[in-house]
Structure formats: C-alpha cells, structure tokens
Give the backbone structure.
Amino acid sequence: MVSLKTSVAGIELENPLILASGILGQTASTISNMFKAGFGGVVTKSIGKDPRSGHPNPTMLELDTGLLNAMGLPNQGIDSFENELKELFSIVSGKPIIGSIFASNSSEFVDLAERMEDIGVHALELNLSCPHAKGYGAAIGHDTETAGTSVLEVKNAVDMPVFAKLPPADNISEIAQAVEGAGADAIVAINTLKAMAINLETRKPFLGNKVGGYSGPAIKPVGLRCVYESYQTVDIPVIGCGGITTGRDALEYVLAGATALEIGSSIYYRGKDAPRKIVEEMKSIMEQQEIDKLSDIIGAVHD
Ligand SMILES: Cc1cc2nc3c(=O)[nH]c(=O)nc-3n(C[C@H](O)[C@H](O)[C@H](O)COP(=O)(O)O)c2cc1C
C-alpha cells in the first residue's frame, strides 16, 4: 500500500497536499470544506494588521495557460480574522492549519506572529513574495537582508514552526540561505510571477492594478527550478508550489526536492475535488513505478 504521509518541521500531514494561501482560505466554512475535499493541510489567506480592501477591479483574468490576479492582499485584518480562526478550530480539530501573514516591516510581522500563536495555528507562513502589493511581500522577500531580519525577529518572538514563502527570484538560493540562517523551519517556493495582460482593443492593461501575479500550469517550470535550487542549497524542508495541477506535476516537484506541495489555481482548473484527484493520480503513478513511500523519492533528481 502506497503511503503519501509526510511531515514538515514537525507538522504531520496525511498527504502532502496543502491548500495555498489566498485560495478559498478566508472563512471557517471554506477552510473546513478544503479539508473535506482531501487536503492534508491548509494555509489561510494572508492576513495583515488592519483591514485592507485590495486593488480595484478587475482583479482576476484567465489567460491561455494560467491565471493573472492582482487582488492586492484584501483581508479583514487580524482582529476580525481571529474570530474566523476560532470558529475553524471548533469545527476541525487536530488538522494542520498554517497561518499566513504579511507586513511591511519586522515589528509588524512580530505582532501578527504573536497574535497567530495565541490563536493557536500550528505553523506560520511569512508572505515574503506577493508581487503586486507595494511595500509588502516580494518587496521584502527579494532583499536577502530584510527577508532574513523578518524571519529572525519572528523566530525570536514565537515558539512554533515558521515557513518563509519566497518569490521566484533568480537568486532564490541566496534568499533561501538567508532565511535558513535566520531560523526558518521550511521554505515555500514559489508565489506568483509578476506579470501583465494588455487589451489590444482598449489599448489598456486588463487588470485594475495594471500588473498582477501569474499562477497555474504556465509557472510550473519556474517553480520546479526554484525548488530544485533551494533543495541544493538548504537543509530545511522545501514546500513546492506553482502550477501543480496533476499527480504527475506533484511528483515532479517531489523529485526536485519538495517534502510537501501547496496547491492553488488547480482548484480553478479541476474543481474543489482537485486534491482528491491529485492524490489518486500520485498513488497510481507510485504503484506503477513501485514506489512505497514519498520519502523514497524526495530530491531523487539530484542523485
Ligand atoms: C487569487 C489568488 C490569491 C492569492 N493570494 C495569496 C495570498 O494572500 N498570500 C500568498 O502568499 N499567496 C497568494 N497567492 C499565491 C498562491 O498561494 C500560490 O503561491 C500561487 O498561486 C502559485 O500556485 P498555483 O499555481 O498552484 O496557483 C494567491 C494566488 C491567487 C491565484
């Protein structure tokens, strides 16, 4: 019997699929439905200190081989999200819930991290990579020093696993090294790619914010490269993310070095049943190739 069990920084997962931040991860009921749909873990929508309305419409566009979004980190702020998370814990207990936070500086990160720890999430994911919210996300993650400082201060403040979600940078190895040195317990690679689409008829950008983040099947090769390079450089686990749509995609990421996998746009392409379908496809390929457990092939492409 094939086993898909895995663990990241002490967080045990029944299967390696984790709902990526920002996709149906904002309310207690949608998050609990994601567990019912087959995810082994869930990352909640990135939450900031204060409520934020995000960018003007249109914020989302389907392209030929991916999705372009410029949501702009809309969220209800930590005070109101606390109630949502408490409700969630009363519905699902014991399931791995990773709280994603974004901030413009390390002291704000620390405040949010302490709040998340008090609420009781099992791990934190620092959004160091959103490409379309000025002063947040990638603005921090692209700078090795600022990324390292954010992780270091959060690690000094809380007693729980901290994941650093990195942008698809050319020098991802250096950033991965910096956050590992600062105490990160895992790396998540990658967030969306900064991109745009133009309407030939109106001669205007499609998105209200003009530029956004590209996700879905088109970005898989970039995600694979980032996981591959991170795995070569650091000893902490790497969580793969970016364009994982099928069981085949998921296993390619495992070969590149991923211990677990985050899934976002696939929910759009394959429906809410996406995790169950991907798990079944992974099992069937593993059976064909006589692989008993996931840990036998993590990073195998490096052998
Ligand atoms: C509509 C939308 C909203 C997103 N919001 C967030 C977010 O709040 N925080 C974050 O870290 N990533 C966010 N992401 C990025 C995803 O978590 C993920 O890193 C990215 O979409 C690549 O994975 P995918 O190709 O499986 O979608 C968002 C992506 C989409 C499409």
The first strand starts at residue 6 and ends at 8. The chain has a mean pLDDT of 96. The chain is about 35% helix and 20% strand. The CA atoms of residues 88 and 261 lie 22 Å apart.
